[in-house]
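[STRUCTURE TOKENS]
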Amino acid sequence: MREALPLLPQIAVTVVDDVTQGSRCDEGFLRVRRRRLSLSFSDGRVSPVFAYDEAWRVALDAVTMAAHFADPRGVRRVYLRSSLRPPVALRPEEPIARGPLTGALWELPAGLVEPDERGEPGLRRCAARELEEELGIAVADEALRPLGAGMYPSPGVIAERIYFYEVEVDPATRRPPGLDGSPLEEGAEIVAYPLADALALADEGFFDDMKTELGLRRLAARYPVSR
């Protein structure tokens, strides 16, 4: 029988003010580049000029980490963390009803790559920092292993590239996570969930976060589990 996940935290998202009108596209955490582009083709043709908007941020890329271990029964478990995503909570109704949109998702822990964390050593350093921040697990940078190639989750909107890592951890060393001071990180649920059960949920379309499903499937390809 599949192990049950805890209930996701019930946290409401309230819009206190909307300051979109009058704001500049270069303000805020996530910014907008509004450009006019033209395409040159191999046969010499040049396209008409067209408008193209692109989202960007200073810390453009991200890492996601599959922290896992084998429990005393030999069951491979992977850490999942609940995350509150306001754009999901505030989006229009789903075209295919899947229940109320609360913005709460089960995800593999992840975080943004700072400008000084470029290159493989920097990405490992970022992944180790985010693991301690989000799960309360400290690991050496070199313990993190790449889990396949980095990928663009939404290349038509933002050039963010997500890099995947996995690391085998000792659950006895886990401490309260440090968090980053944002209200969005408060009240999260953390669970070490059987990888086989997570794959079964993925097969059923349970995980709405694409990087989480991809990370879980890549982890299972490296550490095969009985299903």
The chain has four helices and nine strands. The chain has a mean pLDDT of 93.
